[in-house]
Write a structure and sequence with these properties.
The complex is a heterodimer of chains A (about 375) and B (about 70). Chain A has one domain. A four-stranded mixed sheet of chain A has the order 4-3-5-12. A four-stranded mixed sheet of chain A has the order 6-11-7-10. Chain A has about 375 residues and is an alpha+beta fold. By secondary structure, chain B is mainly α. Chain B has one domain. Chain B contains three helices and two strands. The relative contact order of chain B is 0.19. Classes of the chains: A alpha+beta (about 375), B mainly alpha (about 70).
C-alpha cells in the first residue's frame, strides 16, 4: 500500500460512489464539489499520479484558502487538479499560483468574497510554461488548450472546494464572470518586442513565474486601421476609459495584453513599456462630469477628497492610480486585437518563481519528477 | 471583531441579511461562533441618508441588547 493510500484510510478521507461517469458527475454536483461541468474522479491512484512532480510534503499546507481558510495541502490540491483534467506536469504550477494568491497584497480573502466579478488571471512566463504547453498564441484567452483550461480550472476548484468560495455563502459575486471557469495564459515572449513581464519585474529570464491578478473578463480592443503607436494607444485608451471600472477609483492594477501585431506597431514607434504606461495613464481619462452626480458627490468628493474635493467637473479622472501600476504583456496570435483586463480594486498583483525545495530556480519541470 | 471578542471586549458586526450566511461562517472560522451579528436589510451601498438612518435604527436596539446581555 502506498503512503497516500495509507493516508486515505483516515475516517472521511475516502468517499465511494458508482464508477459510471454520469453517476460520478451527479454525485460530485450533489456534493457541490464541481464547477458545474463533468470532472475526472479523483481516485487515490489518480491523486498519487498527480503528485509525481510534487517535491513537497503531501500533508503540509502550502497555503490556507479563505474564506474557510482551508488547508491547501498538496494532496488536497492534487485531488482538485485531477478533477480539473491536469497532467501531473501541470501540478507544480497550480501550487505556485495558489502560493502567489496567498501573498497579502493580492487580498485573496477580499477577492474570494467580493460582489465584484473578479477571478485569478494567471500569467505564466519563462521556459516551463512552454515546456508544459500553456498556449500563448491564437485564442490564448479562449477554449481548446488543455494546459490553459486545466490549470486555471484546478485553481478555481481549489478555491471552491478547499476555500469554500461557494456562490451565495463564501463567494458573493453579484454576477461573476465566465473567466471563473479558467483564466490562464502564457506571455508570447517570442513575439514580444519588449522584455517579458517576469524580466521587467526583476526575475532572471530563465526563471519560470506566475503572476496572479484579480481580473475581470478581458475587454477587446479592435483596431485594424492604426499604423502608428499613437494610433493603437489612442484606441486602447478609449477602451480603458470606462466609468464602471473599479480601477477608476484609483486602486488595483489593470492589464493591457497587446496582441503581437499591435505590440509590433507600438514598439515600432519607439515606445518602451514605461512609455506606454505613462502615455495610457495620461490619455485614458474621463472628465469628472461623465460620472453620475451621486458618484461625484459620494465617491470622488468624499472618499477621494484629497484629489477631488473641489475639482472642477472637467478634471480628468485617470483610470488607475499611478502609471507604473499598469501591467503590460504581449499574448495571443495573429490579428489586430488587444485585450484590456480591468481588476478588482483592493488588490495588487503577485509574482512567484517556480523553485525546487532547495530554493533553486526550476528550469525544466522534469527536475521536479519524483524518483 | 473576532480579535476584540477574544480580548474580552464586547463586539458585534453589522451584517446585511444577504450576507448573514457568510458572516455566520466567518465567525466560526475565526473562532468566535457566538459573535453577535446585527442583521439589517440589504443593500448597504447606494443608500440615501434616510435609508442609512432606517438601518441604523434597526441595528441599534440589537446592539443595546447585546451590550446588556454581555454586561449581565
Amino acid at each position: 500500500m502506498s503512503s497516500l493510500a495509507a493516508m486515505l484510510k483516515a475516517p472521511g478521507a475516502l468517499v465511494e460512489c458508482d464508477d459510471d461517469p454520469e453517476a460520478v458527475y451527479e454525485f460530485l454536483c450533489s456534493k457541490g464539489w464541481s464547477d458545474g461541468l463533468p470532472v475526472i474522479p479523483p481516485t487515490p491512484e489518480r491523486v498519487e499520479r498527480m503528485l509525481a512532480y510534487c517535491d513537497r510534503d503531501f500533508e503540509k499546507p502550502v497555503v490556507r484558502i479563505p474564506p474557510r481558510f482551508g488547508a491547501a495541502t498538496p494532496i488536497r490540491v492534487a485531488a482538485n487538479a485531477v478533477m480539473a483534467g491536469c497532467k501531473p506536469e501541470y501540478f507544480p504550477l497550480v501550487l505556485l499560483a495558489l502560493e502567489a494568491m496567498a501573498e497579502d497584497q493580492y487580498n485573496l480573502y477580499g477577492t474570494q468574497a467580493t460582489t465584484h466579478p473578479c477571478t485569478p488571471m494567471l500569467i505564466f512566463n519563462g521556459p516551463v510554461a512552454k515546456e508544459v504547453g500553456i498556449n500563448a498564441g491564437q485564442n490564448v484567452m479562449g477554449n481548446y488548450f488543455r494546459a490553459n483550461a486545466a490549470i486555471g480550472r484546478a485553481v478555481r476548484l481549489a478555491l471552491v472546494n478547499i476555500g469554500a468560495a461557494i456562490p451565495g455563502t463564501g463567494d458573493m459575486a453579484t454576477a461573476g464572470t465566465p473567466a471563473k471557469f479558467t483564466f490562464c495564459v502564457a506571455e508570447n515572449e517570442d513575439n514580444s518586442p519588449w522584455d517579458p513581464l517576469h524580466v521587467e519585474l526583476g526575475f532572471p529570464r530563465e526563471a519560470s513565474t506566475v503572476t496572479v491578478i484579480a481580473a475581470e473578463s478581458p475587454h477587446n480592443v479592435n483596431d485594424h486601421e492604426s499604423i502608428t503607436a499613437e494610433g493603437i494607444l489612442t484606441m486602447v485608451a478609449g477602451t480603458m476609459a470606462t466609468t464602471g471600472s473599479n480601477n477608476a477609483y484609483y486602486a488595483g492594477q489593470p492589464v493591457i495584453a497587446f496582441g503581437p501585431e499591435h505590440a509590433a506597431t507600438v514598439a515600432g514607434g519607439g515606445m518602451s513599456k514605461a512609455g506606454i504606461k505613462q502615455w495610457l495613464f495620461d490619455h485614458a481619462t474621463i472628465p469628472l462630469s461623465k460620472f453620475s452626480q451621486e458618484t461625484i458627490e459620494r465617491r470622488f468628493r468624499r472618499k477621494l477628497a484629497e484629489q477631488f474635493a473641489n475639482a472642477p467637473l472637467d478634471t480628468p479622472v485617470h483610470m488607475w492610480a499611478k502609471p507604473e501600476d499598469l501591467i503590460v504583456i504581449v499574448t495571443g496570435g495573429a490579428g489586430k486585437h488587444s485585450q484590456y483586463v480591468p481588476t478588482f480594486g483592493n488588490t495588487r498583483s503577485a509574482t512567484r518563481a517556480l523553485k525546487r525545495v532547495d530554493g533553486e530556480l526550476v528550469k525544466s519541470i522534469q527536475e521536479l519528477k519524483r524518483v | 471583531m473576532a480579535q476584540l471578542t477574544k480580548r474580552g471586549l464586547i463586539a458585534a458586526v453589522v451584517c446585511s441579511d444577504t450576507f448573514m450566511k457568510l458572516g455566520t461562517a466567518q465567525a466560526r472560522v475565526f473562532g468566535v461562533p457566538d459573535l453577535p451579528l446585527l442583521k439589517i436589510q440589504h443593500p448597504l451601498g447606494g443608500l440615501t441618508m434616510e435609508k442609512v438612518r432606517e438601518r441604523a435604527a434597526v441595528a441599534l436596539p440589537q446592539l443595546l441588547k447585546v451590550v446588556k446581555e454581555k454586561q449581565s
